[in-house]
């Protein structure tokens, strides 16, 4: 009987010790949540999902490293919110992510949502790393919590204007924009670039981001005999625009600068997409330092190819984590200075930020649709050797 009591006591002590050990291990581990904000439903859902997939791949890769930050084993988790590409919804989404205690945010997709959301993140003191959001106005707000991992439209519009005049030899240029913060801002910079080269646009027309019939604006432009039409907008509208240009017999090159170069454009534009020219921030995937490996990993994980900006969402996520590692803290007050000073070798290239939070030395690539595929023509900008 005494032996049984002694064994029972020993087992109880052992169990207590195991429980204490488990609690100690739990206390030394931490789950860190990174927010992802983008359009996960609606017309731009394919782009939002592409960003989410890229960010999730980054989370998966980071967790394979079994990182220790601040003396704790850290597991990262992605929390996604759907901003529907709508500025008001974006503000509500940003507040929800902040209230849920995310350590930092990757997002939003476009400039129109990133600008109002930025104040929410700034007031909360956490980093917002935009994987796209190319409108310069986003970082010109002066928030020290705002960053972006691709070039902005002041540079993109300038390069597009130079390419149109110097390489495409365009002389009679018309401009259309979708009146969004992205489209209008890009068109303004494109026009400023033309004017700096002594070229004035022959016409400027406006649509909205839901326009699908471009007959009216193109009829007005056709009478002025353009040789190039620049569109400040994205692929889902650029495709029907390209088709209508051909259907109306307008002998002009369609050009864009950001948001054109996707499989969606090729599917929607069909044969009328041939010859369209577009400048896109960043290098072609095959020229990115980690592009080929990323593309293979993306295909293996999700069963289909990259839509548009997944590599940038991957890098936005990884650079956030890298700053936390450098600061040895997941607290934003500690990692933000490290993020501002960081130099990180990413899939898309080296990531370092200027005083506004813009990517230093951004590259831009000019593409053209040749035989139904987007073919890189030349790379502009980037670090000078």
From TrEMBL:
InterPro entries given in the database record: Leu-bd, Leu_Ile_Val-bd, Peripla_BP_I
Keywords: Amino-acid transport, Signal, Transport
Highest taxon, organism lineage: Bacteria
Pfam families per UniProt: Peripla_BP_6
Domain Leucine-binding protein positions: 31-372
Alphabetical GO biological process terms: amino acid transport
UniProt name for this protein: Amino acid ABC transporter substrate-binding protein
Organism of derivation: Franconibacter pulveris
């Amino acid at each position: 009987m005494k032996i049984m009591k002694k064994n029972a006591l020993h087992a109880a002590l052992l169990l207590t010790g195991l429980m204490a050990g488990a609690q100690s291990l739990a206390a030394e581990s931490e789950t860190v949540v990174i927010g992802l904000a983008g359009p996960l439903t609606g017309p731009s859902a394919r782009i939002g999902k592409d960003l989410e997939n890229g960010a999730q791949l980054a989370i998966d890769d980071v967790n394979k490293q079994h990182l220790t930050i601040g003396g704790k084993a850290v597991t990262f988790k992605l929390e996604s919110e759907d901003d529907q590409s709508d500025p008001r919804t974006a503000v509500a989404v940003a507040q929800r992510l902040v209230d849920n205690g995310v350590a930092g945010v990757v997002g939003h997709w476009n400039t129109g949502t990133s600008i109002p959301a930025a104040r929410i993140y700034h007031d909360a003191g956490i980093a917002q790393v935009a994987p796209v959001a190319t409108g310069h106005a986003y970082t010109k707000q002066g928030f020290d919590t705002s960053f972006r991992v691709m070039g902005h439209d002041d540079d993109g519009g300038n390069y597009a204007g130079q390419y149109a005049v110097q390489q495409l030899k365009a002389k009679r240029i018309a401009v259309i924009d979708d009146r969004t913060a992205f489209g209008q801002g890009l068109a303004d910079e494109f026009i400023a670039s033309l004017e700096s080269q002594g070229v004035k646009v022959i016409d400027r027309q406006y649509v909205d981001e839901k326009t699908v019939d471009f007959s009216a604006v193109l009829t007005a432009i056709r009478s002025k005999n353009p040789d190039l039409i620049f569109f400040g907008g994205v692929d889902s509208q650029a495709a029907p625009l390209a088709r209508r240009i051909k259907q109306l017999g307008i002998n002009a090159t369609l050009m864009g600068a950001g948001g054109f170069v996707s499989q969606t454009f090729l599917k929607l534009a069909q044969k009328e997409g041939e010859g369209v020219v577009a400048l896109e921030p960043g290098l072609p995937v095959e020229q990115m330092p980690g592009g080929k490996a990323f593309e293979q990993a993306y295909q293996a994980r999700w069963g289909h190819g990259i839509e548009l900006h997944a590599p940038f969402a991957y890098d936005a996520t990884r650079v956030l984590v890298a700053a936390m590692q450098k600061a040895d803290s997941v607290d934003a007050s500690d990692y933000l200075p490290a993020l501002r000073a960081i130099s990180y070798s990413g899939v898309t290239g080296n990531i370092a930020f200027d005083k506004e939070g813009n990517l230093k030395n951004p590259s831009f690539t000019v593409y053209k649709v040749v035989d139904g595929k987007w073919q890189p023509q030349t790379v502009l900008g980037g670090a000078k050797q």
